Amino acid sequence: MWNTIEAQKLIKHSMNLQKDTINVAYKVEHDLKKFKSATTFASYTQGNLNYYLKGDLLKNMITVGALHSKEKVYNGVQATYDLTGKTVGFMG
Predict the structure, then answer these.
(1) Which of 8, 10, 11, 57 sits 20 to 30 Å CA-CA off 92?
(2) Alpha helices (H) in the chain, listed in sequence order
(3) What's the rounded Cα separation, in Å, for the pair 68 and 11?
(4) Which residue(s) pair with 45 in the sheet?
(5) What pTM does this model have?
C-alpha cells in the first residue's frame, strides 16, 4: 500500500522466499514517522523436523525453535532471548 503524508496510512511490506527446504521472510510496517513493526523469519525443513529462527527488530527479541511431526502427533520447543537484557526470564 502506498502512502501519502496527508493520509497517514500505514505502509506494509512483506516478502517470503523459498528454495527447496529453506525459507526466509520479513514483514515491516511504517507510518512515515517510525516503524510500527519489523520482523524476520528463517526456517529449515529436514524430513519431519522444522527448525526456525524469528527476530523482532523493534523489541530486540530472538526466538529459536524446532517442530517435529509424525502422523497426527506434533511436538515443538522454542526459546526466546531478549537482546537488551531487560526481560526477566523464568529463572529471574
Answers:
(1) 57
(2) none
(3) 36
(4) 50
(5) 0.77
**CA atoms of 16 and 40, how far apart (whole Å):** 10
Size of the chain in residues:
92
Which three cell numbers, joined as nine digits, stand for 75? 511436538
Closest Cα partner for 9 from 28, 29, 26? 29
Distances (CA, A) of 3 to 27, 32, 36, 37: 17, 8, 14, 16
pLDDT digits 0-9 by tens, 9-66: 778 999 999 999 999 999 999 887 889 999 999 999 999 999 999 999 999 999 999 9
Task: Please check whether residue 37 is in contact with residue 54, taking contact to mean a CB–CB distance below 8 angstroms.
Answer: no
- E runs forming strands in 1-92: 11-19, 22-30, 35-46, 49-56, 61-70, 73-82
